[in-house]
Design goal:
3 helices, mainly alpha
Amino acid sequence: MGSQKSFKKKGTIKQILKDHFHGFWEMHAEALPESVRKSIEETVLKAIKCGSRDLGYALYECKGCAEGDPEPVYVCFTCKSRFCHGCGKKYTERRLVDDHPQRNYL
């Protein structure tokens, strides 16, 4: 695949998760109830992969352009998890708008 372009900003929280989650998980997973371990691990790993090609992507190409050789644009899918810093923020904002469409907050 060509150059990997991503227009989504790489956040600090995601980088902290990438750098430290596996070590944390090895040390502390046993302390968590067994019934939720798999769910927690899947959710965090999904948030780490959010906005990357690992979760899939849509590829847009201009087949009708006669000029030059336009580069394809990859739009990476998001995890849509409330745990994820980016997706969770969108979820919260949407919920506030849906619950209180005309209310002003001071």
